[in-house]
Design a protein that fits this description.
Shape of chain B: globular
Structural class of chain B: mainly alpha
Strand content of chain B: 5-15%
Strand order of the largest sheet of chain A: 2-1-3-4-5
Distance between the termini of chain B: 9 Å
Helix content of chain B: over 70%
Strand order of the largest sheet of chain B: 1-2
Number of helices of chain B: 5
Number of strands of chain A: 5
Largest sheet of chain B: 2 strands, antiparallel
Helix content of chain A: 40-55%
Order of helices and strands of chain A: EHEHEHEHEH
Oligomer: heterodimer
Chain lengths: ~130, ~160
C-alpha cells in the first residue's frame, strides 16, 4: 500500500487525516521536524503532507532540508496549512512545495486530488 | 446522530440569545433584537462542520475530535495568554494559529475568527490588543465547550 508521511503537531489534525486517508493509504505520522527528517531518511514514503506552523523547526525549514537532501529531494511535498491569506498559495509554491491544501479540511476531494496528482506525477504520468 | 439533534442542542446552549437558522448555519445574535439596523451577526457556531466530521469518520471520529478539542483548546488559549504576558510574539502566534484551525474544523466559527484576528496581529510582530482578544476567547470557549459537550453526549447515547 502507498505510504504517506504526515508532519503535523496537532493531534486532532492527525486524527482527521487518518480518518480521511487511511483507507487508500498507509500513514506514518510525525509531530515535529527533527523526527520527521530522521524518519523520512530511514523509510522513504511516496509523498509528504507537511504542516507549516510547527514548534521548533517549521514547515518551510523542513522543506528546505528535504530539497537539500540527495535522498529526499525528489519527494512530492504538499503544504497542509491554515495559512490561507491572499498570496500564501503562491508563496509556498515558490518556496518549493509541490502543492498547497488549506485547513480546515472542508472538501476531502481537494486533498485526495492533490495527493493523486503528485503520486501520478511521481510514477511518470505527469500532474494533470 | 444527525443534524437535527445538533440544532436542538445549540438552541439550548444559550437561551438568552436570538437565533436565525438557515440550512447551513445557526446564527446567534446576542440580544440584538432591538437593533434592527445593525448588520446581521456572523454565525458563532456551524453544525454542518460536525456533520462533515461524521461523514469523514462516523460518530467515533466526531466524539474523538470533540474530546481532543476540549483538552487542547483551553491549553492553547492559556499558551496564548502566557505568550502575551511574557511578550512572546512567536508563541502567541503559534497558539492562536493552532486554535484557529481546530476551531474552524469543529464549527466554532467565532472562536476561530477571534484566533485569526489575534494571530494576524502577532504575525505583524506586535501584541497590541491581543490580551483583549484572548479574554474574549476565554468567554467564547465556555459557549463552545457547552455546545460540544451536548453534541458529544447526544452522540454517545
Amino acid at each position: 500500500m502507498t505510504t504517506l508521511a504526515v508532519v503535523e503537531d496537532n493531534a486532532d489534525n492527525r486524527l482527521l487525516l487518518q480518518a480521511i486517508l487511511s483507507g487508500p493509504y498507509t500513514l506514518v505520522e510525525y509531530d515535529n521536524g527533527i523526527d520527521a527528517l530522521a524518519g523520512l531518511s530511514a523509510s522513504l514514503p511516496e509523498l509528504v503532507l507537511l504542516d507549516i506552523s510547527l514548534p521548533g523547526m517549521d514547515g518551510n525549514e523542513i522543506l528546505a532540508r528535504i530539497r537539500a537532501d540527495e535522498k529526499l529531494k525528489h519527494l512530492p511535498v504538499i503544504a497542509l496549512t491554515a495559512h490561507a491569506m491572499s498570496g500564501d498559495r503562491e508563496k509556498y509554491l515558490a518556496a518549493g512545495f509541490n502543492d498547497y491544501v488549506t485547513k480546515p479540511i472542508v472538501d476531502e476531494t481537494v486533498l485526495l486530488g492533490a495527493i493523486e496528482k503528485w503520486l501520478g506525477a511521481k510514477k511518470g504520468n505527469g500532474p494533470s | 446522530m444527525h443534524l437535527l439533534p445538533i440544532l436542538r442542542v445549540d438552541e439550548r446552549v444559550d437561551a438568552s440569545t436570538t437565533h436565525r437558522q438557515t440550512s447551513d448555519t445557526v446564527a446567534i445574535r446576542m440580544n440584538d433584537a432591538s437593533t434592527s439596523n445593525a448588520p446581521p451577526a456572523e454565525p458563532a457556531l456551524d453544525p454542518t462542520a460536525l456533520t462533515r466530521l461524521e461523514r469523514f469518520g462516523g460518530t467515533k471520529l466526531l466524539v474523538e475530535m470533540i474530546g481532543l478539542f476540549q483538552t487542547a483548546a483551553p491549553e492553547r488559549i492559556a499558551a496564548a495568554s502566557a505568550g502575551v504576558d511574557s511578550g512572546d510574539v512567536a508563541a502567541t502566534e503559534l497558539a492562536l494559529h493552532s486554535l484557529k484551525s481546530s476551531s474552524a474544523q469543529l464549527g466554532a466559527l467565532r472562536l476561530g475568527r477571534l484566533s485569526e484576528r489575534g494571530e494576524a496581529i502577532a504575525r505583524a510582530g506586535t501584541l497590541d490588543g491581543v490580551a483583549e482578544i484572548v479574554n474574549d476567547m476565554e468567554h467564547e470557549l465556555i459557549r463552545v465547550q457547552a455546545w460540544l459537550t451536548d453534541v458529544r453526549d447526544g452522540a454517545s447515547t
